């Protein structure tokens, strides 16, 4: 057997890996709670590594725990083609977000092994640590370190809500590797992902060709006030940081409604306060919010309003606001030649496709800063995600899988200049 234009992925074998992954880190029925660097994450990593070794891949772990599994090419000195995503999940996560992308890459490897096809370039399959940011904020830190955006030491010093360090958990689960987090040359990076939105499912599309990401701006703000008794303290002498935070987050939500008609979105996602007890005004509050809009200029306007709203909320509550962190991502970041390649494969294989913009953050956003990058979206039922009800059928995934296979091989076997 050889690789031909008609070669297809082994869907049943792929589904079997999805189901085995779906047994690790179960919390509510049907969903997963596989937080990064947890015991469940370790168990999944171990299984993934065993699958990679069975597929005769050379496994390396970097200093932030990302797993790189390499399949040799005929010209092994050439920069590799990478396929990746993440195996960690949200607290109330699904069985497909990220996971489908990593296991799709594994199935590409297995299919090439079945066919005895040795590609020109090496293929590297990657599982990025802490894509979700559900335990250690911000998200996508390992791919960020790969492209030089974050220092590995900074990442290892992140702490979770219990005050546990990223670096200590990495050691505990045995996934602090020796490979440098900063990556070398990469020929191309592909990431298959569920859409995490309702468009493909509603339009009955088999696959989405991701042209870019909604420009997004996020902020983490700390409000500082002063503790006092809730009873006798007059309203004009209060410095209640909890109220500053709450006011900011509702103001951010209002911004979302103001821009909703053209699909703008604004989210207040986190508020923690201290002491956060009855009978006492809070001294500090920490909040996270973000805004997204398909038009970059409008997204910038929303971001500016979000920023001003923080200081306005602080002033009303007699507090101060400190911007602790801010980030931005999205835009037309993906590689046009890869987008064209994916589109032409969708047409050649006669799948019902459409162009689509990503509305969520992905490791591919970081990789796009480093090498030609593209994403393939598959439908997911009702767009439900970050929820234990998240679901894709094998039919939902089929087009994306077969397109990924052919696009990856096309790039792996692309002629090279010696
Ligand atoms: Zn994801």
UniProtKB/TrEMBL annotation:
Binding-site positions, Zn(2+) 2: 97, 132, 386
Cofactor note: Binds 2 Zn(2+) ions per subunit.
Cited InterPro entries: Amidase_Cbmase, Bact_exopeptidase_dim_dom, Peptidase_M20
Coiled coil: none
Cofactor(s) the protein needs: Zn(2+)
Positions that bind Zn(2+) 1: 86, 97, 193
GO molecular function: hydrolase activity, acting on carbon-nitrogen (but not peptide) bonds, in linear amidines; metal ion binding
Keywords carried by this UniProt record: Hydrolase, Metal-binding, Zinc
Record-stated family: Belongs to the peptidase M20 family.
Full protein name: Allantoate amidohydrolase
Organism of this sequence: Haematobacter massiliensis
């Amino acid at each position: 057997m050889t690789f031909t234009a008609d070669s297809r992925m082994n869907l049943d074998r792929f589904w079997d890996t999805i189901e085995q992954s779906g047994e690790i880190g179960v919390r509510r029925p049907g969903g997963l709670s596989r937080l990064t660097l947890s015991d469940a994450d370790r168990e999944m990593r171990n299984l993934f590594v065993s699958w990679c070794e069975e597929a005769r891949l050379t496994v390396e772990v970097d200093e932030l725990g990302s797993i790189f599994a390499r399949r040799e090419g005929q010209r092994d000195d050439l920069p590799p083609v990478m396929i990746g995503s993440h195996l960690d999940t949200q607290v109330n996560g699904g069985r497909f977000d990220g996971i489908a992308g990593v296991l799709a890459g594994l199935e590409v490897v297995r299919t090439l092994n079945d066919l005895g096809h040795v590609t020109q370039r090496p293929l590297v399959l990657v599982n990025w640590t802490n894509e979700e940011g559900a335990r250690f904020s911000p998200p996508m830190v390992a791919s960020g370190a790969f492209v030089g955006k974050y220092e590995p030491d900074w990442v290892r010093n992140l702490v979770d809500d219990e005050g546990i360090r990223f670096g200590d958990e990495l050691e505990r689960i045995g996934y602090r590797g020796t490979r440098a987090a900063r990556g070398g040359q990469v020929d191309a990076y592909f990431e298959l992902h569920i859409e995490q939105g309702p468009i493909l499912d509603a339009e009955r599309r088999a696959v989405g060709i991701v042209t870019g990401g909604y420009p997004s701006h996020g902020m983490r703000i700390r409000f500082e006030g002063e503790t006092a008794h809730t009873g006798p303290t007059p309203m004009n002498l209060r410095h209640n940081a909890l109220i500053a935070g709450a006011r900011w987050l509702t103001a951010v939500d209002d911004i979302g409604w103001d821009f909703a008609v053209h699909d703008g979105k604004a989210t207040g996602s986190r508020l923690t306060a201290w002491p956060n007890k009855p009978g006492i005004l809070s001294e500090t509050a920490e909040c996270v919010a973000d805004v997204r809009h398909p038009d970059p200029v409008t997204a910038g306007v929303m971001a500016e309003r979000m920023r001003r709203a923080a200081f306005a909320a602080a002033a009303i509550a007699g507090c101060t606001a400190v911007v602790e962190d801010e980030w931005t991502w999205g835009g037309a970041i993906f590689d046009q030649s890869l987008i064209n390649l994916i589109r032409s494969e969708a047409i050649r294989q006669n799948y019902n496709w459409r162009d689509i913009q990503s509305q969520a953050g992905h490791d591919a956003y970081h990789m796009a800063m480093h090498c030609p990058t593209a994403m393939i979206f598959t439908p997911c039922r009702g767009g439900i995600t970050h929820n234990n009800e998240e679901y894709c059928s094998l039919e939902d995934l089929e087009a994306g899988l077969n397109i990924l296979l052919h696009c990856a091989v096309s790039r792996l076997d692309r002629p090279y200049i010696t």
